[in-house]
Amino acid sequence: MTAPLPALSGALVREVRAETVIAAPPAVVWQVLTDFAAYPEWNPFILSIEGKPWVGTCLSVEIRPPGRKTMRFRPRVLRVAKDHELRWIGRVLIAGVFDGEHRFTITPEGDGSRFVQAEIFTGLLVPAVDLTGTFRATHLGFLLMNRALRERVERSALGKPS
């Protein structure tokens, strides 16, 4: 789902969000989510992540939204809460031009977990980017990744090969 959010400090804000329920505990979801080396085996959206999920570090992330060219960027990790949340921020040029704060959250739900992937985009270029269909492609990428994550986690939770 994509929707405009209220303006913050005069900048347009857009959130892209997708969620799924996974039949496995948060620790199992977290293990697959943070095994960056395995992303090329299963992830159709985030093709690779290099670096460690440690607060303050920069990652090298390569994504390919459906129907779009591959993009590489270097976000800074903002928050790591084991088995619960990983959050980073990426910027184009300088702060305020086009920023994206990406978060993955995992919460217990019944015998499983609710996984949410979301990004809040802010900055002067948000209106122009919105016109290109990028947010729609990003949302589709989130949906595809969430489904692939669910399938991989549930296979591993059942002891089946990934």
UniProtKB/TrEMBL annotation:
Please identify the protein, giving its name as recorded.
Answer: SRPBCC domain-containing protein
- Which organism is this protein's natural source? Methanoculleus nereidis
Pfam families the record matches: Polyketide_cyc2
- Record-linked InterPro entries: Polyketide_cyclase/dehydratase, START-like_dom_sf
Q: What SUPFAM superfamilies has UniProt attached to this entry?
A: Bet v1-like
